[in-house]
Structure to design on (937 residues):
C-alpha cells in the first residue's frame, strides 16, 4: 500500500510519520505515533471518544484523513497536563467525572475547545459542547459539573 | 451527598468518597485498555467474516482469494480449531466459534482473517465467496411463540392458588406488554490480544468480566488444560453484562490465530460488527392477569412471560429465571403464578445486561398497577403503597422466600415527602386541564432487587494479599474493574483492615494466574464477594502479625490493635511498616489468600422454592415528564431518587452507579430501539441509528440521595449493599410518568397501553388507540 510522509505538531512537539492512503488520523496517532489517549469508540463520527484539537478546533479524528493533518497543530489529552494537571483534569478527577474512563479523553478535548473560546460558559453551553460525546457510564452530571468547575477555576483563561 | 462520619481517621478507609484508583490515569489518557497496550513485534490484526443470512445452509465457503490477498497471514475456519468449536458459557455446545454447516443469525462468524494490518484483514475478508441455501428464519418473538421454538423447559413459580384468587376478586384485569432489548454500547468494544508462549501456553489480555470462563473456553478450544491459558484484565471501558459471556468468542478467535501463526494476534471488533455479532438485552413479551379489591390490593396474579433468546441458550435460562424472580418487584402477592418461556429465534443470541432479566420482569406489574389505579380512579402511588412488602417479614415471594428486610413502606413515603410528589401531582393534573398540546405526567416507582447469583454455586470469590517487608500491600482478587469502582472499594476494605492509607495498597490487574476459578463480576455482587474475600485474606495476615507481636512483647494478642496509621502493641506503638519488617525478620508469612462463599442461600429450581437471594436492595424514584402530544416527543423534567446502598462503602462511587444506572435504564425504556428487518438483519447497528442518551437527554433537575438509614441487615462487607444493577430499574418511574402523561392526553378517559421503548411513534400510537377506546365507551 502507498505510504505517505506527513508532518505535524503534536502537543507542541514535531512529529513525522508515514501514513497509509485512506488512513484516518485516529489510527495514525494511536499506531504510528503511539499516542493512545484518543480512543476508538465507533469509528464513524458518532461517539466523540476520538476527539482531538486540530489547530484549536475539536475534530473527530476517526473521520479525518491523516494526510489532511499535514502542517497542523494537534492537541490530545496526553499533552494536556504541564508540570501540573490542567484545571479540567483536576476538576474531572476531583468530581468523579470518569467511571470506566473510556470517554474521558474525548470529553476533555471537547471541554477544552469550549473553554478556550468561552472561558465562562453557561450550563447549556457546556451540555451543547459535549452533546456529541457519548458516555455510557455516568449520567453526564459529574462531567458537566466538572467542566463548570474548571471554568470557575479559570481553565479557559489559562489556556486561551 | 450522603457522607457519613467514620471512626477511622485515615483517608482510604471505608464509607468515604475516595476517588477512583485510576482517576489520575483516566484524565491524563494514560490508563491502558487492551487496545492501548504496546504491541509486540509481529502482531497480527484480525477481521471476522460474518454470515449475511439469518438462517441458511452453507453450501460452499470459498476463501481462496482471501488467502492470497495482500498482507494476509492466516485464514481461519472451524476446521482449524484443534479442540472444541464451542464457547457456550453453560457448555450447551450451541455457540460455535465458526459456523460449520448452518448459520443461524445474520452476523454469525464463519471465518477470520489474520493480517499484517487491520485494513488488510478487512479488505481480504470482502473477497470471500459464500454460497448460502436459505432456510426459513424465525425472527420475531411472536413467530417463535407460534412455532413453539422453546430452547429449554421453563420452570414455574407458584404461591397459593392464583386462579381461584383471581376469580374470587371483585376486580380483574389482564393485558400484554412488549419490552424491547438493548445494546450495551460499552464505549470500549470487544477486544482481545493473544500472545503465544512456550509450548502450549497462551496469554490473553481480554476485555472481559469473566476471565476464568475465557480461560476455560480458550483452553477447550485449543485442546489444552486451563493451566496453559492465562487471562488478564486490568480494566474495561464499560461492560454492563455485555462482557460476561461474549468475550470468550473474541478471545478464542484471537488465541486461535496466535496458535496457528505463532505470532501475537489482536481482535478488536469494529463497532458495527460488535453491534451485529454480539448479544444484547432480551426483549420480552409480558402477559399478565390480576385480581384486586376495591382498595387496589392485589389478591392474585398470573404472569406468562416469553423472552427472545436468539439462536442459542447462552445465559438465557438464568436471565429468564431472574425475570420470574422479579415479576413481583416490590409487591407482596398473596397468590401468584409465574412462568417465562425461553424462545429461540434466528437472531443474535441475547445475553446478560445490567439487571439480567430483572428489569423486564418488573415491567408487567408496574404497568398493571398503573392500570389498577386508573380503573379505581386512585393515585397509583397509593395503590403501590397498599401492595408493597411489609416490614414485618410476614410476606412470601412467589418462590416462597420470606422478605424480612423490606424498607419499602418507609422509603417510598420518605421520597414522596422529599420530592413533594402529592402536591406536584395535583398541580400537574390542574395544568394538564389548561394545556392542549403539552401534557405532563408524574410517577413514583419502587425497586426491590434480589442480590446473589441465582445459580448458587457462583456465589464464591477469592483474593490474594501480600504484605511486603516495607509495609506496602499488593492486592489481587477475582473481580474485574469496568468503571464501577470495584477496585477502589476493595482497596478501601484492605486499607481499613490494616489501618493504612489507600496509597499503600497496590490494586493489581485481575489474572487467572493469581486467583483461580472465579465467578463473573456480575449480579451486582462484585464488592460483596470480593470485598469479603480480600477482608478474609487481610484478616489472616493480621492474625499472624498480632500473634508475632504478642509473643515478642509478651502481651495478649487482643492488645495488638491496628489503628489508623499505626499499630498499638500494649503500651507501645509502631508503624505498620515497622511491624511488617519485624515480622519478616521473625520469619512470619506475610502473604495469604482469602475466600468467601455467601452463606444461607439455596434454591431448588424444580420446585421453584428457596432462598436464592442473600438480601434485597431497595430504591425508589419519582419522574416528571412532559410530552408533546402532536409529535410524541418527551422531555424528562425532574427526577428524585432515594436509594438504599446499605452503609455505602464509597458514597461517591455509589452515587455514580445510581445516576448512571438510571440514565442507562432511561435509554432502554425511551429511546434505544433495536430493529431487525424481515430478513433478520439488524438495521440499528450504529449509534447514528441507535439512540443512546446524550448530555442533552438528561433531566434538567436530578436530585439523588443515598438513603441515610440504609444498613444491610445481613453481615455483608461493612454492612454495605450491592449497587451495580438496582438503580437501572428506577427508570421505570419515567416510563410510568410517560404513561400518566399519555393518559392525560386522552382526558384521563382511557388507559394507554404503551410498549417499551416509549419512542415518539409508540407514544402517539398508544394515545390514538386509547382515545379510540374512550370514544367507543
Ligand atoms: S471513534 Fe470517532 S466518533 Fe466514535
Ligand atoms: S466513563 Fe465510561 S463511557 Fe464515560
Amino acid at each position: 500500500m502507498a505510504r505517505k510522509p506527513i508532518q505535524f505538531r503534536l502537543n507542541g512537539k514535531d512529529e513525522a510519520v508515514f501514513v497509509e492512503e485512506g488512513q484516518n488520523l485516529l489510527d495514525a496517532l494511536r499506531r504510528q505515533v503511539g499516542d493512545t489517549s484518543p480512543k476508538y469508540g465507533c469509528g464513524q463520527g458518532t461517539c466523540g471518544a476520538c476527539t482531538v484539537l486540530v489547530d484549536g478546533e475539536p475534530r473527530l479524528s476517526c473521520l479525518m484523513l491523516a494526510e489532511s493533518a499535514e502542517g497542523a497543530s494537534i492537541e490530545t489529552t496526553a499533552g494536556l497536563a504541564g508540570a501540573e494537571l490542567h484545571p479540567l483534569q483536576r476538576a474531572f478527577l476531583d468530581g468523579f467525572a470518569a467511571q470506566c474512563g473510556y470517554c474521558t479523553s474525548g470529553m476533555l478535548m471537547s471541554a477544552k475547545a469550549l473553554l478556550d473560546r468561552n472561558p465562562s460558559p453557561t450550563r447549556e453551553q457546556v451540555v451543547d459542547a459535549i452533546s456529541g460525546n457519548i458516555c455510557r457510564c455516568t449520567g453526564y452530571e459529574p462531567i458537566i459539573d466538572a467542566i463548570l468547575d474548571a471554568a470557575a477555576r479559570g481553565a479557559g483563561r489559562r489556556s486561551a | 451527598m450522603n457522607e457519613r462520619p467514620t471512626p477511622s481517621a485515615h483517608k482510604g478507609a471505608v464509607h468515604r468518597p475516595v476517588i477512583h484508583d485510576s482517576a489520575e490515569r483516566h484524565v491524563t489518557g494514560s490508563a491502558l485498555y487492551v487496545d492501548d497496550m504496546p504491541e509486540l513485534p509481529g502482531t497480527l490484526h484480525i477481521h471476522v467474516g460474518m454470515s449475511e443470512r439469518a438462517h441458511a445452509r452453507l453450501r460452499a465457503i470459498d476463501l481462496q482469494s482471501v488467502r492470497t490477498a495482500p498482507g494476509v497471514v492466516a485464514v481461519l475456519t472451524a476446521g482449524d480449531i484443534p479442540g472444541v468449536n464451542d464457547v457456550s458459557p453453560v457448555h450447551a455446545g450451541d455457540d460455535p466459534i465458526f459456523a460449520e454447516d448452518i448459520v443461524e443469525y445474520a452476523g454469525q462468524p464463519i471465518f477470520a482473517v489474520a493480517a499484517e494490518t487491520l485494513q488488510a484483514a478487512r479488505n481480504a475478508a470482502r473477497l470471500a465467496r459464500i454460497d448460502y441455501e436459505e432456510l426459513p428464519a424465525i425472527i420475531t418473538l411472536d413467530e417463535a411463540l407460534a412455532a413453539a421454538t422453546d430452547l429449554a423447559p421453563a420452570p414455574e413459580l407458584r404461591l397459593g392458588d392464583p386462579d381461584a384468587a383471581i376469580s374470587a376478586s371483585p376486580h380483574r384485569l389482564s393485558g400484554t406488554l412488549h419490552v424491547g432489548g438493548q445494546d450495551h454500547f460499552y464505549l470500549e468494544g470487544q477486544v482481545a490480544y493473544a500472545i503465544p508462549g512456550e509450548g502450549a501456553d497462551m496469554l490473553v489480555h481480554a476485555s472481559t468480566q469473566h476471565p476464568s470462563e475465557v480461560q476455560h473456553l480458550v483452553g477447550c478450544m485449543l485442546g489444552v488444560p486451563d493451566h496453559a491459558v492465562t487471562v488478564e484484565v486490568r480494566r474495561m471501558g464499560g461492560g454492563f453484562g455485555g462482557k460476561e459471556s461474549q468475550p470468550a468468542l473474541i478471545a478464542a478467535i484471537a488465541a486461535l490465530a496466535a496458535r496457528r501463526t505463532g505470532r501475537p494476534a489482536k481482535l478488536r471488533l469494529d463497532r458495527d460488527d460488535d453491534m451485529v455479532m454480539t448479544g444484547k438485552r432480551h426483549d420480552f413479551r409480558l402477559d399478565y392477569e390480576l385480581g384486586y379489591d376495591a382498595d387496589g390490593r392485589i389478591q392474585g396474579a398470573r404472569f406468562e412471560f416469553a423472552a427472545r433468546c436468539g439462536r442459542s441458550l447462552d445465559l438465557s435460562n438464568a436471565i429468564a429465571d431472574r425475570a420470574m424472580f422479579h415479576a413481583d418487584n416490590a409487591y407482596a402477592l398473596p397468590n401468584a403464578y409465574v412462568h417465562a418461556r425461553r424462545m429461540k429465534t434466528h437472531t443474535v443470541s441475547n445475553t446478560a445486561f445490567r439487571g439480567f432479566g430483572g428489569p423486564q420482569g418488573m415491567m408487567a406489574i408496574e404497568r398493571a398497577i398503573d392500570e389498577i389505579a386508573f380503573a379505581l380512579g386512585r393515585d397509583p402511588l397509593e395503590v403501590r403503597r397498599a401492595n408493597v412488602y411489609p416490614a414485618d417479614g410476614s410476606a412470601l415471594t412467589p418462590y416462597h422466600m420470606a422478605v424480612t428486610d423490606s424498607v419499602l413502606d418507609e422509603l417510598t413515603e420518605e421520597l414522596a415527602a422529599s420530592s413533594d410528589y402529592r402536591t406536584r401531582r395535583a398541580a400537574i393534573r390542574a395544568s394538564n386541564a389548561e394545556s392542549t398540546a403539552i401534557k405532563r405526567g408524574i410517577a413514583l416507582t419502587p425497586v426491590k432487587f434480589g442480590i446473589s447469583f441465582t445459580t448458587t454455586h457462583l456465589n464464591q470469590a477469592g483474593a490474594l494479599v501480600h504484605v511486603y517487608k516495607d509495609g506496602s500491600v499488593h492486592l489481587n482478587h477475582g473481580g474485574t474493574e469496568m468503571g464501577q469502582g470495584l477496585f477502589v472499594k476493595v482497596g478501601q476494605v484492605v486499607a481499613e483492615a490494616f489501618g493504612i492509607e489507600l496509597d499503600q495498597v497496590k490494586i493489581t490487574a485481575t489474572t487467572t494466574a493469581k486467583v483461580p476459578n472465579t465467578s463473573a463480576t456480575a449480579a451486582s455482587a462484585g464488592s460483596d464477594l470480593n470485598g469479603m474475600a480480600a477482608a478474609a485474606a487481610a484478616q489472616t495476615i493480621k492474625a499472624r502479625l498480632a500473634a508475632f507481636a504478642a509473643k515478642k512483647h509478651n502481651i495478649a494478642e487482643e492488645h495488638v490493635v491496628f489503628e489508623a496509621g499505626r499499630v498499638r502493641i500494649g503500651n507501645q506503638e509502631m508503624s505498620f511498616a515497622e511491624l511488617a519488617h519485624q515480622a519478616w525478620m521473625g520469619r512470619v508469612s506475610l502473604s495469604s489468600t482469602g475466600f468467601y462463599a455467601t452463606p444461607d442461600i439455596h434454591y431448588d429450581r424444580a420446585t421453584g422454592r428457596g432462598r436464592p437471594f442473600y438480601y434485597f436492595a431497595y430504591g425508589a424514584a419519582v419522574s416528571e415528564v412532559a410530552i408533546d402530544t402532536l409529535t410524541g416527543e418527551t422531555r424528562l423534567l425532574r427526577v428524585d431518587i432515594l436509594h438504599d446502598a446499605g452503609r455505602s462503602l464509597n458514597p461517591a462511587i455509589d452515587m455514580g452507579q445510581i445516576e448512571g444506572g438510571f440514565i442507562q435504564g432511561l435509554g432502554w425504556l425511551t429511546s434505544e430501539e433495536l430493529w431487525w428487518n424481515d430478513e433478520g438483519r439488524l438495521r440499528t447497528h450504529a449509534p447514528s441509528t441507535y439512540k443512546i442518551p446524550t448530555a442533552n437527554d438528561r433531566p434538567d433537575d436530578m436530585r439523588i440521595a443515598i438513603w441515610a438509614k440504609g444498613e444491610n441487615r445481613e453481615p455483608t462487607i461493612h454492612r454495605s449493599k450491592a449497587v451495580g444493577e438496582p438503580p437501572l430499574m428506577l427508570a421505570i418511574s419515567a416510563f410510568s410518568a410517560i404513561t400518566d402523561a399519555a393518559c392525560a392526553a386522552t382526558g384521563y378517559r382511557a388507559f394507554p397501553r404503551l410498549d417499551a421503548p416509549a419512542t415518539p411513534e409508540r407514544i402517539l400510537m398508544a394515545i390514538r388507540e386509547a382515545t379510540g377506546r374512550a370514544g367507543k365507551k
